[in-house]
């Protein structure tokens, strides 16, 4: 079995918000642009109430999805049903 490289991620620090997270993970980039980019890679954080807030166990991706990450499961792309 060959291991594949996974998307880079961090977990939030206590009381960290989007601004502090952006400054920590991409200190050399404009904060507002970094926040918008990070939010677009972490839509799972907006499927709860209150949307977009962190919990200590959150996985926050700090790089975009890898090529092929959005492909359907093998066998499902040809119209086969999952068993």
Folded structure, characterized:
The protein has a domain at 21-61. A two-stranded antiparallel sheet has the order 1-2. The two termini are 24 Å apart. By secondary structure, the chain is mainly alpha-helical. It is built from two helices and two strands, in the order E-H-H-E.
Topology readout:
Elements: E1 9-10, H1 18-25, H2 31-41, E2 60-61
Antiparallel strand pairs: 1-2
Q: What is the general shape?
A: globular
Largest sheet: 2 strands, antiparallel
Measured by DSSP, the beta-strand proportion falls in under 5%
Order of helices and strands: EHHE
Indicate the structural class.
Answer: mainly alpha
Measured on Cα atoms, how large is the radius of gyration?
16 Å
Low-confidence stretches: none
Total beta-strand segments: 2
Q: Give the averaged pLDDT, no decimals.
A: 85
Number of helices: 2
- C-alpha end-to-end distance: 24 Å
Order of adjacent strands in the largest pleated sheet: 1-2
Helix content: 10-25%
Keyphrases for this structure?
single chain; 83 residues; mainly alpha; 2 strands
